[in-house]
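re: ur question from yesterday

yeah so i grabbed the chain u mentioned. its 338 aa long if i counted rite. heres the sequnce exactly as i have it in my notes:
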Amino acid sequence: MFRPLISLLATVAATLAIGWIVDRSLQRLAAREPDAPLWAQLRRCRVPLQLVVASALLLAAQPIWRALHPHRDEGPHHLVLLVLLASLGWLTARVVAAVLDALLSRYEGRVDDPARVQRVHTQISMLRRVADAVIVVVTVAVMLLTFSAMRTVGAGLLASAGIIGIVAGIAAQSTLGNFFAGLQIAFGDTVRIGDTVVVDGQQGTVEEITLSYLVVRLWDYRRLIVPVSYFVNKPFENWTRRDPGLLAAVLLHLDHSTPVDDLRATLRAHLDRHPLWDGAEWALQVTDTTPSTIVVRATMTARTPDDAAQLRFDIREQLIAYLRDEHPRALPRLRTTD
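ran it thru and got these structure tokens back, copy pasting raw so excuse formatting
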């Protein structure tokens, strides 16, 4: 009567002890090698590891209990087997995720190029989703094969696999297209997480890339959900594919009497005081003229698209205020007399 309880308590004690030992070992490795993020990432695998250990110990004790009780029901044994398979799948997914996250963290610490970091981030995120999908499919398939009914119909399923594959391919054509489009985006380096893109006239930042869709965060914090096949089949603007910085431009329509040199000096003075200017490039040029105005373009660089937009707003406001206060005749006027 007490043997099942003793066996269960021994299994729980062994599971907790193994989990504690593994966690302490990973802590020591992480403290000994602080530059190796893998050990800290692997600590997230403690719960699935303990489930694997507990279910494996219970299965190992099954032959003994079967010998003592030959007419015992096989239901609990099958349930524990299913828990073991599910736990192994969970543990495998956690280990793969930890390895990929550690690789990304190590890469981010060694590379200073934001564009390359974004590209690797996108690729690793896609690899993680593909790995999770494969692990789930394989785990569920193996769990189903433990049922005798599934093994019985296995031969029939294999015989009709060709027809089923054709039908499934036709039915899931759109899904498969998005899947391969997602892989093409991840490894073709056309768009990455963190890129600033323009889709159907709407500017936003790529926030997430999955196997089927892509999430773009717009300037007003709305999320635009776009199928990944869109970025393969249609043109779009990627403002940060090569360089995360941008050239901001301000256009002003002014009178012909505008003191361009003074305006250029004022622009430089404002840029020197502005925290969003990266100090790389700037210019002020007269790009066009009409019978009543001239077109003055002020350009400046910033580190990110958001900084470029804010810098453009601030500089436009400051230049107009300077002309209004110092040179009001430089602002465009409607001429009614000669």
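noticed a couple things. The first helix runs from residue 2 to 32. also Strands lie at 196-199, 202-209, 213-218, 223-227, 237-238, 246-254, 277-289, 294-302.
anyway ttyl
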